[in-house]
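Just scan my protein:

——
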Amino acid sequence: MYAVRYELIKKCRQSGARLGRLHTPHGIIETPIFMPVGTQATVKSMTPEELKEIGSQIILSNTYHLYMRPGYELIKKAGGLHEFMQWDKPILTDSGGFQVFSLGPLRKITEEGVEFRSHLDGSRHTITPEKAVEIQTALGSDIMMAFDECAPYPADRDYVKKSLERTTRWLRRCKDAHKNTENQALFGIVQGGMYKDLREQSAREITAIDLPGYAIGGLSVGEPKDIMYDILGHTVQFLPEDKPRYLMGVGSPDDLLEGVIRGVDMFDCVLPTRIARNGTAMTSQGKVVVRNATYAEDFSSLDPECDCYTCRNYTKAYIRHLIKANEILGARLLTIHNLRFLLKLMENIRTAIHEDRLLDFKEEFLKKYYQK
């Protein structure tokens, strides 16, 4: 028995999108779902209680950053991530591969793994597939991601082919190293860049290794959206129907809708928290750059259609003042709102799938969001 099991509830007759449930050791997740990112064992500025209040079902933490600080041995001593951060719902940890490969000249890729220098102090480290599993086992996440190589965009075809084949070999090593199968699920990651035949090759190789779930990596890395959607739609058809599908690093409203329509169940992205710190809100009427002078005397809420704590209690003028004064509360209030906005969007998407009207919902939502 796997630690994580996917249950398909129904498909939308209008779009083909999936409504499902993900059964995990720390609770059931209604899908499709957006996962707030808690890179350093915290979703920036948010308490676990606040995350639950806005409807978070699962959060994501980052293996690379927790390996670097405070160290996975310390978190293991604390009883794992759930105890360490006082979050009793499911947690997904990525393998750290994307962060390591983002280090550029600070890292060297070999068949064994990746040698790199810390972005904190320059110290030397090596993460192998076995090490990535060891770290994530200590963290105690419900879902751990396999160590993969994420090719940049654009990338040479020959490089991408060699990269995806290495990712397959690394996945086999991850599976061999993964022993805590009753309590933690290992997901494989499909790569292949922007080459359809290589995406198919990767998907077939990765899904040939029996796992409880599969992710699509290497998208939303700088490519045009039409290419991203085309590659995504092509790739999903090679993933099994009875396993969850996770599109990594995607979180704009249009990308969530397009991903769900193409059969994706899980998403994550730092976008909502990052733009909140920069003074921007996602609303039903589109993006609102609250720091702009036009909102200096605007005493309305961020979004009249939002039910979050921020929108129930504060005005654009007040939040703008906080952002301009560099007060922490400004970023907190915008973070609460942005995360609730995306989680509410996913709730509405699930309802639309249930009612077989997702394409109609998409058209209505995007018309308001983009004001056209």
